[in-house]
Specification:
Shape: globular
Strand content: 15-25%
CATH class: Alpha Beta
Radius of gyration: 16 Å
Distance between the termini: 12 Å
CATH architecture: Alpha-Beta Complex
Structural class: alpha/beta
Number of domains: 1
Order of helices and strands: EHEHEEHEEEHH
Largest sheet: 7 strands, mixed
Length: about 190
């Protein structure tokens, strides 16, 4: 079975490849850098994962695997949510997004947050499998750590030992992360 990775994010692609690496007879292929990024205008994470997978299918005729992830911060009414990757606007950097998040939280004492990932495999005939993974934690007051990508330096998982995702090795992060949980569940479904 072949699936084309819908993500163009190298950090995310490496995590997904690692998490799906034990599925028997699964061959993952990177998406072509020539493929344009689709507009993620869905109302839900599932909608956006489906949009990304379908864009690859439309361009290649091959099945695809995609995900969408949102950070839901309690004190911000669930924001940034489905807009997590574009929180500071189109073309914003990871640093821009983290800066906006920290500025909006300010001195807020309640810094609880949940990461949510939807992982989806979709075939050209419309068949699909999808799973969801979550991870509860808190938002720091400043970035801490050098590993990972995205908001990793400002998120401390509740099930961890007080370190941010960005202070963990990739294996440590994958063991507790939202994406790790979603893709391990998808791997189990793909292996059936």
């Amino acid at each position: 079975m072949k699936l084309i990775l819908a993500t163009g994010n190298p950090g995310k692609a490496a995590e997904i490849a690692l998490l799906l690496g034990d599925v028997p007879d699964l061959r993952l292929e990177p998406r072509s850098p020539a493929l344009p990024e689709p507009e993620e205008d869905g109302d839900t994470l599932l909608d956006n994962a489906r949009i990304k997978a379908q864009a690859v299918i439309d361009a290649t005729g091959e099945p695809a695997v995609a995900d969408d992830t949102g950070l839901e911060v309690l004190a911000l009414g669930g924001a940034p949510g489905v807009h997590t990757a574009r929180y500071a606007g189109p073309g914003a950097s990871y640093g821009d997004n983290m800066a906006r998040l920290l500025a909006e939280l300010g001195d807020e004492a309640d810094r609880r947050a949940t990461w949510r990932t939807v992982a989806l495999a979709r075939w050209p005939d419309g068949t699909e499998l999808w799973t969801e993974g979550t991870c509860d934690g808190t938002i720091t007051r400043a970035p801490i750590g050098d590993h990972g990508f995205g908001y990793d330096p400002v998120f401390i998982p509740a099930e961890g030992d007080g370190r941010t995702y960005a202070q963990m090795t990739r294996d440590e992060k994958n063991a507790v992360s939202h994406r790790g949980r979603a893709f391990r569940a998808l791997a189990m479904r793909l292996a059936q």
